[in-house]
Amino acid sequence: MACFFPFNNRNLDTSFFIFRPTIVIVDDVVEALKNFSFCTESLGCVHSAIFRSIHGNMMVWYGAWIKRSSENKDLLDALLSMLTNVSSMAILMEHGFYDAYAGESKDHSPAAKFYTGDIVSMNSAASSSHHHDMPIEHFSYTCLAIFKDRFQKMDGAVAGVCLKCQTIPKVAAIFVWKSLQCCYNYILNQDSRSVLPYFDGFSLDLKYDVFKVVYVSGDGALNFHFYPPHKMLEGKEGLHNNVTQELNRVAE
């Protein structure tokens, strides 16, 4: 079943929790985060996903939430209290809510769709501690300029989205790829130093990683919560139509 990053913040808030596992069997961390995903549904999380770093020791939990006016701080406190099971197996390195403010897809979808098994790359830019008073708009415009300049030239990139943190000067760009090989080809043929002129005058902490999607929230619930047994006989076409309708509704 599809999960997605919205291209704007009209209907959804997005959040990211970044963990570093402290146990050898990281599948246990995945199972604990799946349980966390299930628990967040009662707080307004409409879908979630888990990304596992391909080369590093990081795991990301992503959630998309029904938009609320000023309840994010209280919601974040509630989420942190629900991470008890995960805390014994992984260290929470970073977390926060983000607004999506731009995005494109090569297939003209209204959001960046992805499924379990897909490859996702993330890069972020945050100001150094002594530049925290710098407006977030400076970072977001810079990120958007890079995105607009490069996305259509990124062979193998299915979709991309730009996000900005709601609380600190930090921006991120996320891309969904056709395959890991496509992602590698882009990285190997791209001069990472070429983005530095865009950030001239900024003192930044730049990060980049490549992940495999190991879970989306619809995976374990498909048979039980969405389709009774006789509906499953209708085949994949009905599922595809429902996903498309939901994407169009949220993106409006």
Task: Outline the secondary-structure elements.
Layout: E1 3-6, E2 12-21, H1 27-40, E3 45-53, E4 59-66, H2 72-81, H3 84-87, E5 90-105, E6 111-114, E7 119-127, H4 136-150, E8 157-165, E9 170-177, H5 180-189, E10 204-216, H6 222-226, H7 229-232, H8 236-251
Antiparallel strand pairs: 1-6, 2-4, 2-5, 3-4, 3-10, 5-8, 7-9, 7-10, 8-9
What does this structure look like?
Helix content is 31%, strand content 36%. By secondary structure, the chain is of the alpha+beta class. The protein has eight helices and ten strands. An eight-stranded antiparallel barrel has the order 2-4-3-10-7-9-8-5. The two termini are 21 Å apart. Strand 3 and strand 4 form a beta hairpin.
